[in-house]
């Protein structure tokens, strides 16, 4: 079956993104809230610059990742045909892969060096959704299972575009908690505010894209119970897009220079906070009861 010509949903959504950002900014003028972070001029400019820059880099990285994914698809004898009625099933499959990709980008420092860009803002508004990485060349690894079972990479890319567009509107403080059944199944602004928070109980939570069900199933869900503090556990003090894009790679390079060769691999593949001197906490010895 010949695939249909999938529309570039992200590109078509750009005018909507701009309109919603303008409306959100106006809403802060009309109804200010001292508890909400709102917009900052330099921060917003940086987010927009990162978004525009990512468009060009995504084209470059996309050539290599598309080639690798297509190679897996061509090698497998399996084929899953596309039908429009089955689109929700493809979206669910893509969203599951997205969950593990997103989780992996928080748990593996080399991947975090790319994803940290999206978390580097200390504000949380619709412009934050556009603060995207310029080094997104590793995420395709998590979608190779779809190609291996016969899902055409063009279908996965189309579903990925829908996933990305969905996630735009959840980057806001203007929407409180929603209808409870919807909150249970889908990712919402409340869930995503938790994801962008830097305080301990919220760290590395709510990785879902469209669905929050994955976090509930795999033990990474946290409900919003206190006001989030946005940003990183150690924030960067720059609005320079180049430094925002590459600061964690520079930090990794500095760490590799000062560590032994046998420590290089764990430096790259363990969590962002790992260091050779870190010692796991030992359980407190319990007194032995006399029988």
Automatic annotation (TrEMBL):
Keywords: Lipid metabolism, Membrane, Oxidoreductase, Transmembrane, Transmembrane helix. It holds the Pfam family FA_hydroxylase. It comes from the Bacteria. The keyword Metal-binding does not apply. This is Sterol desaturase family protein. It is found in: Endomembrane system. It is a multi-pass membrane protein. It is an enzyme of class 1 (oxidoreductase). It comes from Catellatospora aurea. Residues 89-220 form the Fatty acid hydroxylase domain. GO terms for molecular function: oxidoreductase activity. The keyword Nucleotide-binding does not apply.
